[in-house]
C-alpha cells in the first residue's frame, strides 16, 4: 500500500474505514457474482440449439451482466451496405416497439460499429459525430457500450447496450465482461447455425425421399405419362415449399416468351394449389438461365408480374435430366422472410431438383412400360376374341340357320332365328369391345372415374353438379382408399338426387395429408325419417380407414357431407 494512502487510512475515522472495507468486499462479491453469471450464460447458451433462442439469451444475459436497461444484438446481412438482417432487443415493451415502428437497419452509431468492428464506450451516444438520432416514441438513451460478435474471423453482428443503471457510464470492466460474453456467444451462434443447417438438410433429404416414394408407389396404369408428371410436379412444389420455408413455389415450362405455370404451391395468385390445366404465366415469369441461381430481388430478375405478391429473394433450379426437361422450379420469399433465403444452401434445392427429375423420368418410363404391357395384353385378348370366339359363334349361327330351314314348325323356326339374331348382336358387341381395347382412354384413372360419376349424376338431377379437384388426386390417393371414396361419392350424389331438390350441388375432392371429399347442396335438407343405413355406411367406411365422416343438415339450408381419411395409415 502506498505511503500517502496509509497516511489517509490512519487519519480516517473508524466509520470511514468500515465503509471502505465494506465497499471493497461488496466489489469483490459483485465481481464474483458477475463471473458466475457469465459462466452460467456460457453454459446455457451452449445448451440451446435454436439460433433465435441463442440470440435472445445473449441480449438478456448481457443486460444483466453490466446492469444495462436496454440491450440488443444486430445480425449483419448481405449486400453492399451490409444492413442489419435481424435485430433482437431486450428491455423495451411491446407498446414502445409498436410506436417506434421499423427496427434499426444499421445507420448512425450502429453503422459506425459495423464499419469499425471494435468495442466502443460512450458517455452520451447522441453526442457522437455518427449519431443518427432517434425516431418518434423512442426512449431516451445516453451511456452506450458496443461490442462486435465474431464467428472465427467473420463479424456476425454487434452487441449493443445502453442506459447503465444509476445513470453512470459503462466501465472498462463492463467492456471486458461483454467482450468475453461476445466470444462465447460466437461459439454458441456457430453451433446453432450448424444445427440449423443440419436440420435444413434433413428437411430437404426428407422431401427428396417423399417425392421418390410418391412416384415409386404411384399406380400409373391407364394414366398418360404426361399426367403422371403433372400430378407429381404438384406434390413437388408443396414439398419444396415446406423444406425451404418459401412463400411461393412454382414450376414454369415453355419459353421466356410463352411461359406456362404447370404446378404451383397454395397462395400462388394464378394457381391456388388446385390441380388444373397449365396456366399461362405473364411474360417475365420464366427464368432465363438454365443453371441454378439465386437473386436478391425477384422483381428485378423478372420472376414476378403484375398481380403477383411482392417477392424479395428467389431461387431458380432447373428440373431436368440429360435427356429431358420438365421446367424450372422457382422458390420465392417475401421481403420479411428474406433471412430464410440467406440460410439456404443452393446445393440443397439443386440436389432435390436433380433427384426429382430422375424420379419423374423413371415414373414416366414406368407408366409408358405399363401402358405398353396393357396394350399388348389387349391386343392378345382382341386376337383371341376375333380368331377363336367370334369364329365359333359365327359357325354356331350358320349351323342354326341351316337347322331353321329344316324345321317344319314355324314357332320353332322363329325361335331359332331369334337365337341367330342374338348371336349376331353378340358378335357385334364383341367387335366393339375389341375396338375399345385398342383405345387409349384411361378407365382406371380415379380422377376420370370421379368425373364420370358426377356426369352420370347430372343426367338424373335438375342441376349439373360443380366439380373441383385440389392436390395430386391421381398419385396420392392410396389404392385401398379409392373404392371407398367412389362408393361414398355415389351414395352422397344419390341422396342429393333423391331427397335434396337442390338448385346447386358442389363436389370437392382435396388430397394432401388427408383425402377429403365434400358433397354439399342447397336443398331442403335431410328429412326427419331418413334411413340411417346409408349414412351409417359412410361413417363406417371412414372409421375403417382411420378417418371421419361429418354430415350436417338443416331444413331449407341443404346438406353437407365431409368424408376425410388420412393419406398414409399410421402404424398402431
From TrEMBL:
Region (Disordered), start-end ranges: 265-307
Keyword Glycosyltransferase part of the UniProt annotation: no
An annotated Gene Ontology molecular function: protein dimerization activity
Coiled coil regions, renumbered to chain: none
Domain of life: Bacteria
GO cellular component: membrane
Key word Nucleotide-binding present: no
UniProtKB keywords: Kinase, Transferase, Two-component regulatory system
InterPro entries in the cross-refs: GAF (IPR003018), GAF-like_dom_sf (IPR029016), HATPase_C_sf (IPR036890), HATPase_dom (IPR003594), His_kinase_dom (IPR005467), Sensor_HK_TwoCompSys (IPR050482), Sig_transdc_His_kin_sub3_dim/P (IPR011712)
Name of the molecule in the record: GAF domain-containing protein
Organism expressing this protein natively: Nocardioides marmotae
